[in-house]
Amino acid sequence: MWSNVKNKVSDFIGKHQLLSRDSLHIVALSGGADSVALLHILSELGYRIEAAHCNFHLRGEESNRDELFVKELCEKNNIPLHLIHFDTEEYASLHQVSIEMAARDLRYRYFSQLCQDIGAASVCVAHHRDDAVETLLMNLLRGSGIHGLTGIRPQNGLVVRPLLCLSRQEIEDYLHSIGQEYVVDSTNLTDDVLRNKIRHHVIPLLNDMNPKAIENIDKTTGYLQEAEKIYNQAIREQLEELVTNDKTPETQTVSLVRLTELPSPLAFLHEWLSPFGFNSTQIQQTYTCLGGQSGKEFRSSTHILLVDRDVVAVEPLGAPMKAMKLPEHGHYVYKEDIHFNVEISNDISISKSADCATLDAEKVQFPLTVRPVCTGDVFVPFGMDGHKLVSDYLTDRKCTLFEKRRQLVVTDCHDQIIWLVGQRTDNRYRVTEQTTSVLRITLK
């Protein structure tokens, strides 16, 4: 048994390049069968290891029992041990997360810091093949996409999992063969969480139906992992080709025409939008809108998404834009990255830059105001005689709804638009042959 287990783990470590013999590695040691087996196997394989144990104080005396057990185990095997205590319930209450999530956050933050403190290359955790299958089944029940059906990875950053090649039964048989005891977490024996229900009821039923059920599901996970590599490459290429930020650096847009030509627009939307916090329901609704529901909006905690006439656009949620008075000529900071310079000059040359408005100073009355466009705003575009709604003008310029909302105007003391910032001045305030001084407003 020992030789077979040793060879399987050694081959698995080599195949996935998980550990280096020249480096120090931390073993996350709970005292349960899996982590105890991991400690013994890596020690016997000659890796340089130290153990780390977290006491979460969630199971009363049982938590203290586990700590005492790992102390004695490490002392017996001459393996350095690092211990830490957590008030997990207080952390969960403070951060408004579940006890399970709190323990996970605390554990992995500690492991990461410990790696830095002692110069360790990785943290070895004892997930095995049955854990990977349980995770796949949990994700399947929750309606996961392809990423959730690829099981637990051999490596995720600093965390490595050398025992994914072994079943739970192989681990227990191995410990029995070497006469090594371990502790049992009583919370794993109850059916109060989904994983335990799958472990105690679904897995045994699958094994009754087919003794190789878990092994075959694990093989399927391997096939899916290989298929995922092709999927990820295709998605990366599509994101690089389709996602643009021509308008502003923070806004990403995708052409509706190009999007609908993809083999799976829904898969593309999922991979593009999920990192911005949009959930699967919102993404499905976005996909439904591609048929022509223009103007539909969705919000995550950090971003806003818009299905516009010919694009899908997403940008960060920003603070509302406000009005600011410009009482006289001078330099004004509207926002950190938006400055206005206002000056009056006898040089009546007209700027051709979109970021500079040249107006007849005698026709403009202070104070001026910089503000966002409002519903119903009208102006007389330079070179025209009649009034035009600003929203219609921006629509003609093929501006997205995001751009319309960000559009600034400068108005005079009567709230008449004198400049649609960066776009066009109002014809009523244009420079003529009778102009003797000009008002220049420059956007920086």
From TrEMBL:
One GO term (biological process): tRNA modification
GO cellular component: cytoplasm
Protein localization: Cytoplasm
Binding sites annotated in the UniProt record for ATP: 30-35
Lysidine-tRNA(Ile) synthetase C-terminal domain residues: 368-441
GO MF: ATP binding; tRNA(Ile)-lysidine synthase activity
Main location: cytoplasm
Gene3D superfamilies: HUPs
Swiss-Prot/TrEMBL catalytic activity: cytidine(34) in tRNA(Ile2) + L-lysine + ATP = lysidine(34) in tRNA(Ile2) + AMP + diphosphate + H(+)
EC number(s) given by UniProt: 6.3.4.19
Signal peptide start-end: none
Family stated for the protein in its record: Belongs to the tRNA(Ile)-lysidine synthase family.
The record's note on its domains: The N-terminal region contains the highly conserved SGGXDS motif, predicted to be a P-loop motif involved in ATP binding.
Matches recorded under PANTHER family: TRNA(ILE)-LYSIDINE SYNTHASE-RELATED
Protein name: tRNA(Ile)-lysidine synthase
Organism (species): Prevotella aff. ruminicola Tc2-24
